[in-house]
Amino acid sequence: MKTSIIATNKQTRFHLLDDQPAQEIDVEGLTIAVAAARDTSSEDSSKLKSKGKSKAKADARELISDAHLRLKAGVHYGLIGRNGSGKSTLLRAMADKLIPGIPHATRISILQQTDATSQEVSDGSEEDTTDDYQSKPVLEYVMSSDNHRNEVIRSMNILSKSFETEDPLHPVIAIRQVRHEQTEKQLFLAQKNANLKSGARGLQARKDLKAVESKHQASLERLGQQKDVIDADAIKDDTQAAVETLQDLQAQFEAMKLVDIEQQARQILIGLGFKETTFDKPFLTLSGGWRMRAMLASVLIQHPDVMILDEPTNFLDLLGVVWLENYLQQLRETSQTTIVLVSHDRDFVNAVCEEIVLIRDEKLSYFKGNLAAYEKDLEEQKLYWGRMKEAQERQVAHMEATVREAVKTGKKTNDDNKLRMAKSRQKKLDDRMGIQVNAKGGRFKLNRDLVGYHLTARAEIEVPTDEKGASMALPDAPELRYPGPLVSLEGIVFRYKPTDVPILNEIDLVVHKGDRVGIMGLNGAGKSTLIRLLVGSALPTKGKVSSHSRLKLGYYAQHSIEELQEQGNANPGLTALSLMSNVVDSSLSEGDLRGLLATLGLQGRVVSDVPVSRLSGGQLVRLALAKVIWNSPHLLVLDEITTHLDFHTVTALATALSSFNGGILLVSHDRFLMRSVVEGKRDLDHKLDEDFEGVDEEEDETQSRRRTVYVLKGGKLREQKDGVEQFEKSLVKRVQKMLPAPV
Asked: From start to end residue, where is composition biased (Polar residues) (predicted)?
C-alpha cells in the first residue's frame, strides 16, 4: 500500500522566499505524519476537496510532532533513531520540499534505500526517470545526474541551435520557449505560496499568484503566436534577448567547466568499487547493489545545498566505506554543503559526522559532537542526574518523616509552631523539590529560572535512558556426543571453469564449538563462494570439506532479505508466523514459535497480522534469523547480517552473539560487529550492553575462545594478527591515492 507524507510546521515572516535557495534550515513546530494514499475518482474527489485535508490528518500516523528542525550550513549531521522512528520519512519530506519552511529553490540531493531500479536523486528539479536516461552507460549516467547543470546545457543548446539557421524567427521562438519554461516554474512557486500562506501574507501571495497567472497566460499566447503576425520590433527585441540570455548561460556553463566533471566522476566511481571496464556498461544492466553505488556516485558528484545519504554504506565493501569516509571528510573542508547521514555503521558515523540529530518520542534533539562524544556525554548525564535523584530521594524521605513526626507531635501537644513547620516543609516538598540547578549549572532560583513559578512546581528530575533496540536472545547449542571440529576445510581450490584462475586457492580452515572466526575482504574476493562451499551449497574443484556428524548448521545468507521479500510479494497473505510454521514442519507449536520470534524482537500482531511484504528491513532480518536458529544450531554462519539494521539493533545483536556457546563464522564489513563479536573487545568509542561477554569475561575461564580475523585476498586466507585494525590501516593507505583532488 502506498503512503503519502503530510508535513506541517509553524511559519514565520522570517522564512526565506521560495525563490531564494538556503543552505540553512530552521523550521519550528514541525509535524510529519504518514497516511495511506487514497485512490478516489474525480467525482469523489470533488466531494472530499473541502475536508480532504482534515480527513487525511485524522487517518494519518504521526512520526514527528511539534519538533524543531535546525540544520546549519556546511555541518555534517548524523541522524540517529530506532527502526520505524521516522528517519527515512523525514529525509523524504525534506528532499521533496514537503516541509513549508524549506525554500523550493534550495537544491537537495538524496540517496534513499528504496527500489534500486528507480532514480532516487532529487535536487529540486523534475527528475529524469525515463528509460533513455537509465539506459545510459554508467559514466554518462553519473555525469548527467546534476539537473541544474543539465537545465543550463539544455537551454543553452536550444538558443545556440536557433542561431545556426538563416530563419530570423528561430531565435524568437527559442527565447519564448525558454522564457515560458521559466514562467511555468514561477507559476508553480506562486501556487505553492498561495496554498501555504494565510492572513496578510496569504492575501499578498494570492495577489502575486494572479500576477504570475497573467504573465503565464501572456507567455503562452506569445509562444503560440503565428510567425506571420510577429512584427519587426518584436523580432528585434526577442532576438536581442536571446543573445543576452545565451551569453549569460554560456558564462554559467564556463564556471561549471572549471571542475572536470568527467574526471571527478571517474574517480568517484573507482572509489566506490567500479572498474574502468564497466564505465560503458548500461546502468539498467547492473545488479541492484551496483545500481545503488552508481546512484551514490551521482549524488556525490553534485554540489547541492543539502546532501542526504540514507544508509550509503549498505552495498559497499570496507574499502568503499573507508574511501567514502575520507571523501566526505574532505568535502567538509572544501564545500559548504550540509550533509544529513543515516547509517548503521557506528565507525562511519563517528568519522564523518560533527553533530548528532536524535529522533526520539516524536521529537528532534541535537548534540554538538560525533556519535562517540554523544554516547560518552549520555553516560555522564545518566550518572550526574542519577546521583542527584538518589540524593533528592533521600532528602525527600527524611523531610517526609520529619513532617509526619512534627504533625503527630503538634497535634498531640497543640504546638502551633510544630504544625506551621510541618506545613512549611510540606509546601517545600510539594513546590520546591525537583531540579536544583538551572540551565547554566548554577543554583536554581524559582523567581528567575521557572516562569510562572507561583503557579507550578519545579520539573521533576529525569534520568536519561539509553535508546536501545529490541533485545535479542539466541538458544544455546546442544552438546555434541563426542568432540571434534564442527567444520573443516582442507586444501580447498575453487574455479568456475577449468581454465579460470582459482577464486579460492589452498584454503585451510577449522572451526570448533565456541570459536569466533571473522572473514573480511573486498567485494569479489570470494567470501560468499567460500561460505557456500562450507555450508554445502557448492562443491570445491579440489580439496575436502568435512563436518561433524551431529552438526546442526544455521546459515544466514547475504540475500536472505531479498528472498523473504520475494516470498511476501508472491503470497500477500503470508505472515511471519505462517512462514515459520512452514519452515519448522509442525515440530513447534504456535506458542513456541511466538516465543522464538519474541526473543528476536518480533511479537504480538506483527507476527500474526502484518504481511511479510509490509515488514521493515530490520524486522525481516529478525525473521530471517529466526529461520536460522529455530533448531538450536551448533554453528552460526552469518553473511552480511547488519545491512538493514539500525546501530541500536546491531548492538543488541552483538550482545546476543557474544554469549552464544556455539561456533560463529562471521562475514561482515561492519568493523564494530567484527571487533565486538569476533575479537571480543569492548570498544572505547561505543558502549556495549552490560550483558556483553567479551575477552574480559573469559579471564577466569580455564579455556578461552579461539578468536581469529582473516582477510580473503588473492584466493588466500590471511590471518590478521592485529585483527580488524590491521586490515583497516592497509585500506587507508590505498584510499589516499584514490581520492579526487580537492575542488
From this structure: 111-122
